[in-house]
Predict the structure of LacI family transcriptional regulator.
Amino acid sequence: MTAESTSGTPRQPAVRRAPARRVSMADVARLAGVSAQTVSRVSNGHPSVVGSTREQVLDAMRRLGYRPNSAARALKYGEFRTIGVILFTLSTVGNSRTLEAIVDHAAHEGYAITLIPVAVPTQDGVLGAFTRLGELAVDAVIVIMEVHLLDAATMTLPLGIPAVIVDSTGGDRYTVVDTDQADGTRQAVRHLLDLGHRTVWHVAGPEDSYAAERRAETWRATLTEAGLPVPRMWRGDWSADSGYRAGLELADEPGCTAVFAANDQMALGLLRAFHEKGKVVPRDVSVVGFDDIPDSTSFIPPLTTVHQDFTEVGRRCVERVLRQVHHRRTKAGTTLVPTRLVVRDSTAPPPA
Amino acid sequence: MTAESTSGTPRQPAVRRAPARRVSMADVARLAGVSAQTVSRVSNGHPSVVGSTREQVLDAMRRLGYRPNSAARALKYGEFRTIGVILFTLSTVGNSRTLEAIVDHAAHEGYAITLIPVAVPTQDGVLGAFTRLGELAVDAVIVIMEVHLLDAATMTLPLGIPAVIVDSTGGDRYTVVDTDQADGTRQAVRHLLDLGHRTVWHVAGPEDSYAAERRAETWRATLTEAGLPVPRMWRGDWSADSGYRAGLELADEPGCTAVFAANDQMALGLLRAFHEKGKVVPRDVSVVGFDDIPDSTSFIPPLTTVHQDFTEVGRRCVERVLRQVHHRRTKAGTTLVPTRLVVRDSTAPPPA
DNA sequence: CCACCACATGTTTGCGCGAACAAGCACCCA
DNA sequence: TGGGTGCTTGTTCGCGCAAACATGTGGTGG
């Protein structure tokens, strides 16, 4: 995502045109022949307005096309009923699915979502987003991070507003909601080992992704715990194409009978590479992915993968951040959303 | 993550209460020993504040953690610098990519994006969204529709705010930005015919999608214009799985040598079905998709498909809606974003 | 019959901000 | 020396709304 200058310098005076005079309560009041306060009462469904008056007001509202000004309302109440979501990109499946769940659940709670893109996943970028957020009309923030920027101390609640972080560490200082990366990875690797594979290769996601690092770490640990050798690790960028490139090399790797890809898209690339190299999945090589994107049932062959419950992640984010909003208290801690392995047709025992 | 945690920055307390009442300009002014107006000037980078005063004010701002109240600012200016986006789902690639482009471009123009989900794609659902939008803090609306609800007259500018519709008809009454569905489809079908296929089968998207209908229509028209028979049409729901089910049947269809799927995911399902049925793509059957999602390069085989420029669609939406905001005038009309056929390995001349 | 109550409606006020205007001041030139 | 001139800073006011309080009105019971 592109960001303009995200530095904290004072805003330059923007060119503002005369505000479009919208219909206000006073206009409605005048037409209905009542006071503005009565219009307010009707607008908010206050009971002590007699039927005939109410009708007059409603009629005037309709005729003038009145709609309440939420800025004034927010000013009065001191809250916007809006949650800001900071993210780097929507192009990964996980992010967009999580966002969708956040939006739905927030709507259910009567909150709107405002999106704040951060172009450059650097510390400045994050700061910039927070700075702009400060000026945006939000009561709380959910950060969908894919990079290790949380520990930048400058990011510590620079606004003093409730925040929840997705997909990162920092559970001791922030409220974190995340998929249980370690457990999912462990299930995937164990599944392959249980099938009889001697070890498991890994195509990791980009280094700057916490999720990718966590999966790689756990892959390594699981092998080590089982007393097995840890083969060389390939590095992708989440894209199917990067998985394909890794696959072309892995196909020539002697003894490679099982590969764990850090996401389904890279697994797709692996499948293609193995296919082109004449290796049959799962007869010659087994492949496991991570995410369980809907398409993975239609890969050739249908993919064994770790199911992530993005909906649940989004739901809990909203739940936890709203709890902070209402209780005015920040509680650090991590909520882990469980995963489960979905076994399809891309895994089998190793060739004899 | 461990690397950052060793950075020399001081750790912040884990729990910090949000101040009961937020810091206002008056508080800053008091601490800095100036008037509130001077604080306002500093906040907005007004030039006529002398250096020493500015420093005092900035210092007070920092110490109190001041951030401007956007509700008050919006109330004053009569605008929110926010665009609302109404959508039904983020789970289709097109929607999330379009949204991402909208967010980016809006940010570039200094506008934030507020998301308004519509749960049920019925007329009531749309109305509900618009009603709530009326109370939301937005200056304009972009509607990402996938269903034919525009013609519901009740939606006619219920708020009188600028609106742009993506992906629909109604160009005579609304401002519409859309991918050139017809041209893309024509290119896909012509490509298959030019390769020598006698006709082209079609797996359409759901009936309630305008894009799906438009593609189906154009497919039919292109065949008819060429004097060719129009085979039975299969109906999917955009999912790979629905493409797979259609593919299982199409594989048994005599004389079916070319299939145009209304999106890439259904094409993926087709590829799997043909594979399972022992039909080799493209030797026995050619397949063309629509969208050009990044994964389509890694299908087996890499998919020939119609490239949609979602980024451009999003960009133009923002551009057109902001033009309305600034010129205070609604201009109906349709902007079509061109498509182009990307030929990969899933198409070939029909078997002899 | 009047004091009082319940309820509908009106008036005042201030949320935080910034435009418009006013005030204070230093400096300049006739 | 006196009246600009230009610059910084302060004061007033109202954006639209709704809480709090004030007022008005009709009805009821002692």
Q: What stands out?
A: Residues 1-20, 150-158 of chain B have pLDDT under 50 and may be disordered. The domain at 25-68 of chain B is CATH 1.10.260.40 (434 Repressor (Amino-terminal Domain)). The first strand of chain B starts at residue 82 and ends at 87. The two ends of chain B are 60 Å apart (CA to CA).
